[in-house]
Amino acid sequence: MSDEVRPRRTAVVIPAAGRGVRLGPGAPKALRALSGTPMLVHAVRAMAASRAVSLVVVVAPADGVAEVKHLLDDHALPERTDYLVVAGGDTRQESVHLGLKALPDGITTVLVHDAARPLVPVDTVDSVIEAVRDGAVAVVPALPVADTVKEVEPAGTPGDPEQVVATPVRARLRAVQTPQGFDHDTLVNAHATIALAGEGATDDAGMVERLGAPVVVVPGHEEAFKVTRPLDLVLAEAVLARRRANDGF
Ligand SMILES: Nc1ccn([C@@H]2O[C@H](COP(=O)(O)OP(=O)(O)OP(=O)(O)O)[C@@H](O)[C@H]2O)c(=O)n1
Ligand SMILES: C[C@](O)(CO)[C@H](O)COP(=O)(O)O
């Protein structure tokens, strides 16, 4: 079937099965509240805000699938958006793979979005989708980095200092966010290839790069930051407070 007549269905896989160790003790990170609403619900709403998204697959902690289903049943989403909840794995990569396996036939564009990036604006989501629909097989939203970044040699003996081995040219570096967008078949192929090779990757575009396929960059957004450490919760609450103030609540 040619691209002209192939229906363009866009789905999002949201890996949400992490524990959130760096955030400190408590519930799994995706279930912790931001302004009274679980982080995962913010993330699902951020994806459903795009009119192009017809399906959201949430990859939940293996022992939390029923809880996450109830949570999403209890929080309104636009009628045009369906959702599924599946159990995740031991790593982010494995969780995304399990989410991809749950996609129905007919999906042509897939976004992968961290539950831990609950505040990404819809314009960023739409620009990723648009770039895929315009023909890119892989798209990442990204921002320039503010710090100088050093490459280090890990310490040989615990307690020894790390040694700096290189300083990459900062102007060429980008901090990559999610949602990352993909042609469906390209992403599925990348996950299968990397898993077969027994390799790991910290993001999905990195797997597509290893296939030799081009990855395109679109502008990211400061509010798409990843909630990783306790201070990020403070920032997320501040962003939500500013949005409420701007909306006149
Ligand atoms: N086994 C895993 C590990 C991570 N994730 C998801 O991948 C996203 C990005 O991961 P990260 O921010 O590192 O979350 P955690 O792994 O939960 O954090 P930490 O490393 O601090 O435990 C999160 O939405 C997280 O839920 C997942 O679905 N399955
Ligand atoms: C996918 C990602 O958010 C891109 O910046 C990031 O690599 C996830 O990393 P983590 O190790 O799961 O925090």
Automatic annotation (TrEMBL):
Tell me the gene name. Answer: ispD
- Does Secreted count among this protein's keywords? no
Q: Which CDD domains would you find in this protein's record? A: CDP-ME_synthetase (cd02516)
Q: EC number(s) of the enzyme?
A: 2.7.7.60
What is this protein for, i.e. what is its function?
A: Catalyzes the formation of 4-diphosphocytidyl-2-C-methyl-D-erythritol from CTP and 2-C-methyl-D-erythritol 4-phosphate (MEP).
Q: What class of enzyme is it?
A: transferase
Which residues of this protein are annotated with the site description Transition state stabilizer? Answer: 22, 29
Catalytic activity from the UniProt record: 2-C-methyl-D-erythritol 4-phosphate + CTP + H(+) = 4-CDP-2-C-methyl-D-erythritol + diphosphate
**Keyword set for this entry?**
Isoprene biosynthesis, Nucleotidyltransferase, Transferase
Q: Please tell me the species this chain comes from.
A: Streptomyces omiyaensis
Protein family per UniProt: Belongs to the IspD/TarI cytidylyltransferase family. IspD subfamily.
Q: What is this protein called?
A: 2-C-methyl-D-erythritol 4-phosphate cytidylyltransferase
